[in-house]
Amino acid sequence: MLLDALPHSAQQFFRALVVSTNAPQSVWLIGSRANNRADEQSDTDLLIFGSTLLIDELRDSMPAPADIDALIVYNGNDYSDPWQNKRGSLANLKWRLLTAEVASYKGVRWIPDEESEDEFSPDSGELLTLDERACRILAAPEHHHLCEQVSN
What we know:
This protein is of the alpha+beta class. It has helices spanning 8-18, 52-61, 90-93, and strands at 26-30, 44-49, 68-73, 78-80, 87-89, 96-97, 102-112, 125-138. The chain has an eight-stranded mixed β-sheet with strand order 5-4-3-2-1-8-7-6. Residues 141-152 have low confidence and may be disordered.
């Protein structure tokens, strides 16, 4: 997926990210945009390999970006979103590099029942575990390497 194909807000966030003082080592597109399920209402999910310094810098230097989930991997395994209470680990996602540009992981997706799409209830749908792909969109701070497309 080309960077230009991402929503404008994601492009702006990406450009600010790569010039930050504590620039990331790599950035991966994950979720629906990386797995060809995105629609006009989809957010942009990024897995960013950086540091706790990057988490602090982002939290202090910019407001939470709209329609972007930015998960910062800060010690090679654990991740945190600078603006939301989202934490986890690559081990729990079963993150695995397939090539230098593509990785696999276990994702989850909530599928609401047809009659309850407008309201969330624990009994109104199904939580699915999916075999997902991720696409590296930044290989190093010095140069960008963009994936053409990730297929299932």
